[in-house]
Protein backbone atom coordinates (compact mmCIF):
# COMPACT_ATOMS: atom_id res chain seq x y z
CA UNK A 1 0.00 0.00 0.00
CA UNK A 2 1.63 3.21 -1.12
CA UNK A 3 1.19 6.19 1.10
CA UNK A 4 3.11 9.42 0.86
CA UNK A 5 2.66 10.12 4.54
CA UNK A 6 4.45 7.41 6.40
CA UNK A 7 8.11 6.51 6.46
CA UNK A 8 8.92 3.69 4.02
CA UNK A 9 10.32 1.50 6.77
CA UNK A 10 6.76 1.00 8.01
CA UNK A 11 5.81 -0.86 4.86
CA UNK A 12 6.25 -4.52 5.60
CA UNK A 13 8.27 -4.65 8.78
CA UNK A 14 7.32 -6.88 11.63
CA UNK A 15 5.68 -5.28 14.62
CA UNK A 16 8.72 -5.92 16.80
CA UNK A 17 10.93 -3.52 14.83
CA UNK A 18 8.47 -0.62 14.98
CA UNK A 19 8.97 2.32 17.24
CA UNK A 20 6.33 4.61 18.64
CA UNK A 21 5.14 7.44 16.43
CA UNK A 22 2.81 10.42 16.86
CA UNK A 23 0.51 11.25 13.97
CA UNK A 24 -1.91 14.11 13.53
CA UNK A 25 -4.90 13.69 11.28
CA UNK A 26 -5.94 16.74 9.30
CA UNK A 27 -9.60 15.69 9.54
CA UNK A 28 -9.96 14.99 13.27
CA UNK A 29 -7.32 17.64 14.11
CA UNK A 30 -6.12 15.28 16.82
CA UNK A 31 -2.78 13.74 17.78
CA UNK A 32 -2.64 9.95 18.17
CA UNK A 33 0.24 8.01 19.72
CA UNK A 34 0.93 4.75 17.88
CA UNK A 35 2.48 2.38 20.34
CA UNK A 36 3.18 -1.06 18.87
CA UNK A 37 4.97 -2.09 22.08
CA UNK A 38 1.59 -2.16 23.80
CA UNK A 39 0.09 -4.55 21.29
CA UNK A 40 0.00 -8.08 20.19
CA UNK A 41 0.21 -8.64 16.44
CA UNK A 42 -2.69 -6.95 14.62
CA UNK A 43 -4.09 -10.32 13.59
CA UNK A 44 -4.30 -11.36 17.26
CA UNK A 45 -6.65 -8.52 18.07
CA UNK A 46 -10.04 -9.91 19.07
CA UNK A 47 -12.96 -8.80 21.13
CA UNK A 48 -12.15 -10.30 24.52
CA UNK A 49 -15.30 -11.17 26.34
CA UNK A 50 -18.56 -12.60 25.12
CA UNK A 51 -20.71 -9.56 24.47
CA UNK A 52 -23.50 -10.41 26.84
CA UNK A 53 -23.31 -13.26 29.31
CA UNK A 54 -27.10 -13.26 29.61
CA UNK A 55 -28.92 -14.85 26.71
CA UNK A 56 -30.69 -12.30 24.53
CA UNK A 57 -34.43 -12.07 24.99
CA UNK A 58 -36.32 -13.40 21.98
CA UNK A 59 -38.54 -10.34 21.66
CA UNK A 60 -38.82 -6.78 22.93
CA UNK A 61 -40.94 -3.62 22.47
CA UNK A 62 -39.04 -2.83 19.23
CA UNK A 63 -40.41 -6.05 17.65
CA UNK A 64 -43.25 -5.98 15.14
CA UNK A 65 -46.60 -6.39 16.92
CA UNK A 66 -45.47 -4.61 20.11
CA UNK A 67 -45.58 -1.05 18.72
CA UNK A 68 -48.02 0.03 21.46
CA UNK A 69 -45.28 -0.50 24.09
CA UNK A 70 -42.97 2.05 22.45
CA UNK A 71 -42.68 5.82 22.62
CA UNK A 72 -44.69 7.66 19.91
CA UNK A 73 -43.96 6.79 16.27
CA UNK A 74 -42.69 9.50 13.90
CA UNK A 75 -43.04 7.46 10.69
CA UNK A 76 -42.62 3.94 9.31
CA UNK A 77 -41.41 2.49 5.99
CA UNK A 78 -43.51 1.26 4.31
CA UNK A 79 -46.51 2.92 5.88
CA UNK A 80 -48.48 -0.24 6.68
CA UNK A 81 -48.69 -2.89 9.43
CA UNK A 82 -45.90 -4.91 7.78
CA UNK A 83 -43.27 -2.22 8.28
CA UNK A 84 -39.57 -2.79 7.66
CA UNK A 85 -38.18 0.29 9.46
CA UNK A 86 -39.74 2.51 12.12
CA UNK A 87 -38.64 5.89 13.48
CA UNK A 88 -39.87 6.54 17.02
CA UNK A 89 -39.18 9.02 19.77
CA UNK A 90 -36.62 7.93 22.33
CA UNK A 91 -38.44 6.97 25.53
CA UNK A 92 -35.61 8.55 27.54
CA UNK A 93 -34.57 11.50 25.37
CA UNK A 94 -31.40 13.41 26.17
CA UNK A 95 -33.02 16.56 24.78
CA UNK A 96 -36.64 17.67 24.78
CA UNK A 97 -38.62 18.29 21.57
CA UNK A 98 -41.18 20.31 23.57
CA UNK A 99 -38.99 23.29 24.40
CA UNK A 100 -38.79 24.90 20.96
CA UNK A 101 -40.69 28.05 21.93
CA UNK A 102 -38.25 28.67 24.76
CA UNK A 103 -35.19 28.05 22.61
CA UNK A 104 -35.20 31.17 20.47
CA UNK A 105 -32.40 33.02 22.22
CA UNK A 106 -29.28 33.24 20.05
CA UNK A 107 -26.30 31.10 20.99
CA UNK A 108 -23.22 33.32 21.29
CA UNK A 109 -19.58 32.54 22.04
CA UNK A 110 -20.15 33.55 25.65
CA UNK A 111 -23.40 31.58 26.16
CA UNK A 112 -23.01 29.40 29.23
CA UNK A 113 -26.44 27.81 29.27
CA UNK A 114 -29.27 27.35 26.78
CA UNK A 115 -32.60 25.55 26.90
CA UNK A 116 -32.29 21.79 26.26
CA UNK A 117 -34.32 21.79 23.05
CA UNK A 118 -33.57 19.14 20.47
CA UNK A 119 -34.64 15.80 19.05
CA UNK A 120 -33.58 12.33 20.09
CA UNK A 121 -35.09 9.66 17.86
CA UNK A 122 -34.64 5.93 17.46
CA UNK A 123 -34.51 4.14 14.10
CA UNK A 124 -35.61 0.50 14.42
CA UNK A 125 -33.75 -1.14 11.54
CA UNK A 126 -35.71 -4.39 11.32
CA UNK A 127 -39.11 -5.72 12.48
CA UNK A 128 -37.45 -8.97 13.61
CA UNK A 129 -35.56 -9.23 16.88
CA UNK A 130 -32.76 -11.53 15.79
CA UNK A 131 -31.76 -9.63 12.62
CA UNK A 132 -28.63 -7.50 12.90
CA UNK A 133 -27.87 -4.67 10.49
CA UNK A 134 -25.09 -6.64 8.79
CA UNK A 135 -27.61 -9.47 8.09
CA UNK A 136 -29.73 -7.15 5.93
CA UNK A 137 -29.04 -6.99 2.17
CA UNK A 138 -27.48 -3.84 0.61
CA UNK A 139 -30.86 -2.54 -0.60
CA UNK A 140 -32.31 -2.95 2.91
CA UNK A 141 -29.33 -1.20 4.53
CA UNK A 142 -29.76 1.50 1.86
CA UNK A 143 -33.36 1.87 3.07
CA UNK A 144 -32.10 2.43 6.64
CA UNK A 145 -29.77 5.15 5.30
CA UNK A 146 -32.66 6.72 3.34
CA UNK A 147 -34.73 6.64 6.54
CA UNK A 148 -31.99 8.69 8.26
CA UNK A 149 -32.12 11.07 5.27
CA UNK A 150 -35.91 11.49 5.48
CA UNK A 151 -35.86 12.16 9.22
CA UNK A 152 -32.95 14.62 8.89
CA UNK A 153 -34.85 16.48 6.15
CA UNK A 154 -37.81 16.80 8.54
CA UNK A 155 -35.64 18.07 11.39
CA UNK A 156 -33.90 20.69 9.23
CA UNK A 157 -37.25 22.54 9.16
CA UNK A 158 -36.59 23.55 12.79
CA UNK A 159 -34.53 26.70 12.75
CA UNK A 160 -32.98 26.28 16.21
CA UNK A 161 -31.26 23.01 15.26
CA UNK A 162 -27.63 23.44 14.22
CA UNK A 163 -26.24 19.91 14.08
CA UNK A 164 -27.70 16.43 13.49
CA UNK A 165 -25.71 13.39 14.65
CA UNK A 166 -26.64 9.89 13.42
CA UNK A 167 -25.05 7.09 15.41
CA UNK A 168 -25.37 3.41 16.19
CA UNK A 169 -24.34 1.57 19.35
CA UNK A 170 -24.18 -2.17 18.69
CA UNK A 171 -23.64 -4.29 21.80
CA UNK A 172 -23.99 -3.46 25.48
CA UNK A 173 -20.40 -2.29 25.97
CA UNK A 174 -20.77 0.07 23.00
CA UNK A 175 -23.65 1.72 24.84
CA UNK A 176 -26.71 -0.08 23.45
CA UNK A 177 -29.48 -0.50 25.99
CA UNK A 178 -31.68 -2.57 23.64
CA UNK A 179 -30.34 -5.62 21.82
CA UNK A 180 -32.86 -5.20 18.96
CA UNK A 181 -30.96 -3.62 16.06
CA UNK A 182 -31.43 0.14 16.07
CA UNK A 183 -29.65 3.44 15.57
CA UNK A 184 -30.27 6.93 16.86
CA UNK A 185 -30.57 10.48 15.56
CA UNK A 186 -29.74 13.36 17.88
CA UNK A 187 -30.48 16.91 16.76
CA UNK A 188 -28.71 19.63 18.73
CA UNK A 189 -29.06 23.40 19.09
CA UNK A 190 -25.25 23.71 19.25
CA UNK A 191 -22.32 22.54 17.11
CA UNK A 192 -20.44 19.83 19.07
CA UNK A 193 -16.70 20.26 19.75
CA UNK A 194 -15.54 17.38 17.53
CA UNK A 195 -17.38 19.01 14.61
CA UNK A 196 -15.81 22.43 15.25
CA UNK A 197 -12.39 20.84 15.60
CA UNK A 198 -12.90 18.87 12.37
CA UNK A 199 -13.88 22.05 10.49
CA UNK A 200 -10.75 23.80 11.82
CA UNK A 201 -8.62 20.87 10.63
CA UNK A 202 -10.12 20.57 7.16
CA UNK A 203 -10.04 24.38 6.76
CA UNK A 204 -6.31 24.53 7.61
CA UNK A 205 -5.64 21.78 5.07
CA UNK A 206 -7.70 23.60 2.43
CA UNK A 207 -5.95 26.90 3.04
CA UNK A 208 -2.53 25.26 2.81
CA UNK A 209 -3.13 23.03 -0.21
CA UNK A 210 -6.30 24.29 -1.94
CA UNK A 211 -7.75 20.79 -1.60
CA UNK A 212 -10.41 19.05 0.48
CA UNK A 213 -8.54 16.47 2.56
CA UNK A 214 -11.40 13.94 2.32
CA UNK A 215 -11.49 14.16 -1.48
CA UNK A 216 -7.86 13.01 -1.22
CA UNK A 217 -8.80 10.01 0.95
CA UNK A 218 -7.43 7.38 -1.41
CA UNK A 219 -3.93 8.85 -1.35
CA UNK A 220 -3.87 10.07 2.27
CA UNK A 221 -5.28 7.01 4.04
CA UNK A 222 -4.96 3.22 3.73
CA UNK A 223 -7.56 1.82 1.35
CA UNK A 224 -9.44 -1.33 2.41
CA UNK A 225 -12.20 -1.69 -0.22
CA UNK A 226 -14.19 0.48 -2.56
CA UNK A 227 -17.56 0.56 -4.32
CA UNK A 228 -18.73 2.71 -7.25
CA UNK A 229 -19.26 5.81 -5.13
CA UNK A 230 -17.47 5.17 -1.83
CA UNK A 231 -14.08 4.10 -0.49
CA UNK A 232 -13.39 2.47 2.88
CA UNK A 233 -10.07 3.28 4.55
CA UNK A 234 -8.10 2.88 7.75
CA UNK A 235 -7.37 6.56 8.48
CA UNK A 236 -3.70 7.69 8.58
CA UNK A 237 -3.95 8.70 12.26
CA UNK A 238 -6.71 6.30 13.35
CA UNK A 239 -7.74 7.10 16.90
CA UNK A 240 -8.83 3.53 17.63
CA UNK A 241 -7.55 0.06 16.59
CA UNK A 242 -9.30 -1.13 13.39
CA UNK A 243 -11.23 2.10 13.03
CA UNK A 244 -12.71 2.37 9.51
CA UNK A 245 -13.99 5.38 7.57
CA UNK A 246 -16.33 5.10 4.59
CA UNK A 247 -16.00 8.24 2.48
CA UNK A 248 -17.98 9.43 -0.58
CA UNK A 249 -15.61 9.63 -3.57
CA UNK A 250 -17.30 12.82 -4.79
CA UNK A 251 -17.16 15.96 -2.69
CA UNK A 252 -20.35 16.22 -0.63
CA UNK A 253 -20.87 18.34 2.48
CA UNK A 254 -24.00 16.77 3.93
CA UNK A 255 -25.06 13.16 4.41
CA UNK A 256 -28.69 14.03 3.71
CA UNK A 257 -27.83 14.92 0.10
CA UNK A 258 -27.27 11.17 -0.48
CA UNK A 259 -29.35 9.96 -3.47
CA UNK A 260 -31.15 6.61 -3.73
CA UNK A 261 -28.53 4.97 -5.96
CA UNK A 262 -25.65 5.97 -3.69
CA UNK A 263 -27.62 4.81 -0.63
CA UNK A 264 -27.71 1.23 -1.97
CA UNK A 265 -24.04 1.44 -2.97
CA UNK A 266 -23.14 2.64 0.54
CA UNK A 267 -25.38 -0.08 2.01
CA UNK A 268 -23.24 -2.70 0.25
CA UNK A 269 -19.90 -1.29 1.40
CA UNK A 270 -21.15 -0.75 4.97
CA UNK A 271 -22.37 -4.35 5.06
CA UNK A 272 -18.99 -5.60 3.79
CA UNK A 273 -17.07 -3.62 6.43
CA UNK A 274 -19.35 -4.75 9.28
CA UNK A 275 -19.04 -8.38 8.15
CA UNK A 276 -15.25 -8.16 7.89
CA UNK A 277 -14.92 -6.52 11.31
CA UNK A 278 -17.22 -9.15 12.86
CA UNK A 279 -15.29 -12.04 11.30
CA UNK A 280 -11.78 -10.74 11.97
CA UNK A 281 -12.32 -9.32 15.45
CA UNK A 282 -14.65 -11.92 16.99
CA UNK A 283 -17.92 -10.05 16.56
CA UNK A 284 -17.00 -7.05 18.70
CA UNK A 285 -19.45 -4.42 19.94
CA UNK A 286 -19.10 -1.36 17.72
CA UNK A 287 -20.24 2.18 17.14
CA UNK A 288 -20.74 3.99 13.90
CA UNK A 289 -21.19 7.69 13.51
CA UNK A 290 -22.13 9.75 10.47
CA UNK A 291 -19.97 12.87 10.48
CA UNK A 292 -21.87 15.42 8.47
CA UNK A 293 -21.51 19.20 8.33
CA UNK A 294 -23.38 21.78 10.43
CA UNK A 295 -26.72 22.64 8.85
CA UNK A 296 -25.92 26.33 8.42
CA UNK A 297 -22.56 25.88 6.75
CA UNK A 298 -21.47 28.99 4.81
CA UNK A 299 -20.52 29.22 1.12
CA UNK A 300 -16.89 29.69 2.07
CA UNK A 301 -16.90 26.53 4.21
CA UNK A 302 -18.38 24.30 1.49
CA UNK A 303 -15.08 23.48 -0.28
CA UNK A 304 -13.66 21.79 2.85
CA UNK A 305 -16.75 20.16 4.39
CA UNK A 306 -17.09 16.52 3.29
CA UNK A 307 -19.16 13.98 5.20
CA UNK A 308 -18.08 10.41 6.07
CA UNK A 309 -19.13 7.44 8.17
CA UNK A 310 -16.79 6.25 10.96
CA UNK A 311 -16.95 2.68 12.33
CA UNK A 312 -15.21 2.02 15.67
CA UNK A 313 -15.00 -1.58 16.96
CA UNK A 314 -14.87 -1.54 20.75
CA UNK A 315 -11.58 -3.29 21.48
CA UNK A 316 -9.91 -1.03 24.04
CA UNK A 317 -11.22 1.23 26.75
CA UNK A 318 -10.63 4.92 27.21
CA UNK A 319 -8.51 5.69 30.28
CA UNK A 320 -7.30 8.63 32.31
CA UNK A 321 -4.61 9.65 29.83
CA UNK A 322 -7.15 9.99 27.01
CA UNK A 323 -9.67 11.86 29.16
CA UNK A 324 -6.98 14.14 30.55
CA UNK A 325 -5.08 14.95 27.39
CA UNK A 326 -7.50 14.45 24.51
CA UNK A 327 -4.69 12.41 22.89
CA UNK A 328 -5.30 8.73 22.20
CA UNK A 329 -2.95 5.76 22.26
CA UNK A 330 -3.54 3.27 19.43
CA UNK A 331 -1.58 0.01 19.54
CA UNK A 332 -2.36 -0.90 15.90
CA UNK A 333 -0.89 1.02 12.97
CA UNK A 334 -3.69 1.67 10.45
CA UNK A 335 -1.60 0.33 7.53
CA UNK A 336 -1.60 -3.04 9.34
CA UNK A 337 -5.33 -2.86 10.12
CA UNK A 338 -6.04 -2.04 6.45
CA UNK A 339 -4.00 -5.00 5.24
CA UNK A 340 -5.72 -7.38 7.66
CA UNK A 341 -9.20 -6.14 6.69
CA UNK A 342 -8.42 -6.18 2.96
CA UNK A 343 -7.52 -9.84 3.23
CA UNK A 344 -10.50 -11.07 5.32
CA UNK A 345 -12.34 -13.71 3.30
CA UNK A 346 -16.06 -13.95 4.00
CA UNK A 347 -16.53 -17.27 2.27
ZN1 LIG B 1 -37.09 -6.94 19.55
ZN1 LIG C 1 -14.16 16.71 -0.45
Automatic annotation (TrEMBL):
GO terms under biological process: galactose metabolic process; positive regulation of cellular response to phosphate starvation
What are the Galactose-1-phosphate uridyl transferase N-terminal domain coordinates in residue numbering? 19-192
- Protein name (database record): Galactose-1-phosphate uridyl transferase N-terminal domain-containing protein
Q: Where does Zn(2+) bind?
A: 60, 63, 129, 180
Q: Which family does it belong to?
A: Belongs to the galactose-1-phosphate uridylyltransferase type 1 family.
Name the cofactor(s) required for activity, per the record. Zn(2+)
Q: Which InterPro entries match?
A: ADP-glucose_phosphorylase, GalP_UDPtransf1, GalP_Utransf_C, GalP_Utransf_N, HIT-like_sf
- GO molecular-function annotation terms? ADP binding; UDP-glucose:hexose-1-phosphate uridylyltransferase activity; zinc ion binding
> One Pfam family name from the record?
GalP_UDP_transf
Q: Which segments carry the region annotation Disordered?
A: 1-61
Q: Domain named Galactose-1-phosphate uridyl transferase C-terminal: which ranges?
A: 203-308
* Family matches, as PANTHER family: ADP-GLUCOSE PHOSPHORYLASE
- Answer whether the UniProt record assigns the keyword Zinc-finger to this protein: no
Amino acid sequence: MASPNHPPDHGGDSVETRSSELRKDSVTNRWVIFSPARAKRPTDFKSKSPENPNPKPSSCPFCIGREHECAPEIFRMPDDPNWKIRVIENLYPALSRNLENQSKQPVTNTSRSIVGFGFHDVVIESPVHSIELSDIDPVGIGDVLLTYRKRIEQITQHDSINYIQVFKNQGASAGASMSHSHSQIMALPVIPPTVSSRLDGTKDHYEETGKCCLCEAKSKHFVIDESSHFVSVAPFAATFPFEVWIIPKDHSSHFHHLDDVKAIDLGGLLKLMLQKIAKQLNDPPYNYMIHTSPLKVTETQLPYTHWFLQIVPQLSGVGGFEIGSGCYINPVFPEDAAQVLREVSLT
